[in-house]
Amino acid sequence: MDVVESGTKPCDLVKEVIHEHPLSPFTLTTAIIVGYLALFSVYWLFCFLRFFAQLKDTLDSRHFYYNSLHVTDNEIQTMPWETVLEKVIQLQSSQSLCMVKDLSAHDIVTHLMRKENYLIGIVNKGLLSFPISHGIPGAALIVKYAPHGTQHHHLVLTKTLEWTLNWCILQSMFDCNFRVRREFVSNPTTLKKQLFVVGIAMLLLSTFLVIFMLVYIFLRHVEQFYNHPSTASSRRWSNLSRWLFTEFYEVDHLFKHRINSSAERAPEYQNQFPSPIISIVAKFVSFVPGGFAAVLIVIAFLEEPLLEGHVRKP
């Protein structure tokens, strides 16, 4: 594709934009970019294959709802959770599903929330608290009483730490019948080795994880910030606060309903403890993009060529 440069000389945009040897010279920055793209490709392939595995489970669940519980896709959207539990219990009484004993609502929820209950217990017992001298963002301060005095620890649960606990503990502690394996309890050395190996891997991949999380957060919230700029300064529940707020045996959709109901009262409680510095910074962050966009709009109306680029050969 050729365009005319300065009115006389043709300019091939394809040759200007596309590089025949993009990896030359192979610098440290290029190596980091190639490594990140390779890791991202592996992660994308893993997610692609996992999609089909989850699709099979989803289709099996739909088949169970439609043929066994006689619940259609339209009915499940408005049917209460208690009604679904009653239908499963009635089905168990008429024909044995996979258990020989009578099934109750407590048994169903216990089976669904077994892994989550362990994580809720770990958080509530303060097992993830560390003796950090200064607080870090998202950490909760707790006080531990000891014979020689009180100790101030900080409870931390980042998303990567939650992934680590899920991989090393929750995914390997149960057998096929959802019972805690004896080897898992009697051999803590294996768990220590797994946590150590995953910790080293997280340390080596920390740079890529930071980039991945930043891109993920940007893509997740860019549409919301574009349509509702005021939400850029609004606060949300942190990962730690969500697990502290979750009750035992509370399924996900009920928890979301309860936490969404708190959105109206939470700002009122939060306003009782104002932080002037954070408020000023938040207003500044929300003001700058809007002001920059306004300047670009004015320039586009007055002098549009200022926003146009011009490709020329060196």
Question: How is this structure best described in words?
Answer:
This protein is mainly α and 314 residues long. It has one domain. It has 14 helices and 5 strands. The strands form 2 sheets. It has a 3-stranded antiparallel beta sheet, with no helix packed on it. A two-stranded antiparallel sheet has the order 1-2. The N terminus is likely disordered.
What is this structure, in a nutshell?
The chain crosses the membrane at residues 31-53, 195-219, 277-302. The protein has one domain (29-252). It has helices at residues 13-17, 28-68, 73-76, 81-94, 105-112, 114-124, 159-170, 182-186, 188-204, 206-227, 239-245, 252-261, 266-270, 276-302, and strands at residues 2-5, 9-12, 129-130, 140-146, 149-155.
Please report the distance between the alpha carbons of the first and last residues: 19 Å
- Going by helix content, strand content and strand pairing, the class is mainly alpha
Count of distinct strands:
5
Radius of gyration: 27 Å
- Number of separate helices: 14
Structural domain tally: 1
Order of secondary-structure elements:
EEHHHHHHEEEHHHHHHHH
Shape: globular
- Could you list the spans in which at least 5 consecutive residues all have pLDDT below 50? 1-6
Please state the average pLDDT score: 77
The largest sheet, given as strand count, sense and whether it forms a barrel, is:
3 strands, antiparallel
The largest sheet has its strands arranged as: 3-5-4
> What fraction of the residues are assigned to beta strands by DSSP?
5-15%
**What's the helical proportion of residues?**
55-70%
